[in-house]
User: Which sequence fits this backbone?
């Protein structure tokens, strides 16, 4: 009679896989949390251009550029304020020009405000905006930088900002493609607020915490 081959291994010692299962669960949970934080709370970005100089240093080489943390949560409970530096996805006008990557600029004009450029300065509701905190003396806010895109440029004449929209400008006014040229940013396009620079380490710290008023 043929001997029966048993498939009962209960008498053999079982490998302890509990630590492997726990490690797998930890890794999966960490990934989920990281993705959740990036999606809903905050994310890291680097500055690819010089449009926010000297406040933020930009470079096409990310290892030479400033790196920042973008707060994506606070605007769920409050609106952007004048002076905030915001990251936003391209508007419809910018998408027509084939822009796909996010922009970073400073909020200058708020919904319902009248904005105009005069004598190289920004006027909000007919009052000059004090921008000494972040603009160097030689910077002038003019539309001559708008050599492409919408013509005539958006701020070639006084405009009233529509509801739920914001006018944004780069701190490097002599070299920034911003609202002067292509228009306002809808509220839903704003990804979040730049709050902390974490690279380079010698410039580690908060970014423009206080709002500005005309």
Assistant:
């Amino acid at each position: 009679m043929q001997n029966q081959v048993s498939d009962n291994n209960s008498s053999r010692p079982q490998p302890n896989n509990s630590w492997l299962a726990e490690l797998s669960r930890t890794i999966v949970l960490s990934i989920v949390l990281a993705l959740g934080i990036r999606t809903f709370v905050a994310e890291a970005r680097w500055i690819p251009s010089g449009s926010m100089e000297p406040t933020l240093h930009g470079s096409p080489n990310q290892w030479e550029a400033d790196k920042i943390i973008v707060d994506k949560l606070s605007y769920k409970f409050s609106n952007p304020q004048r002076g905030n530096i915001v990251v936003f996805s391209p508007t419809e006008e910018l998408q027509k020009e084939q822009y796909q990557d996010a922009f970073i600029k400073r909020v200058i004009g708020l919904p319902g405000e009248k904005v105009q450029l005069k004598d190289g300065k920004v006027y909000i509701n007919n009052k000059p905006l004090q921008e000494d905190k972040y603009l160097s003396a030689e910077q002038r806010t003019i539309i001559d930088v708008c050599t492409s895109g919408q013509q005539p440029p958006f701020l070639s004449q006084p405009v009233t900002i529509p509801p739920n929209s914001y006018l944004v400008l780069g701190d490097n006014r002599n070299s920034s493609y911003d609202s002067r040229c292509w228009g306002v940013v809808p509220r839903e396009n704003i990804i979040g607020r730049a709050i902390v620079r974490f690279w380079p380490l010698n410039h580690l710290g908060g970014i423009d915490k206080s709002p500005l008023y005309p």
Summary: The domain at 43-206 is CATH 2.10.109.10 (Umud Fragment, subunit A).
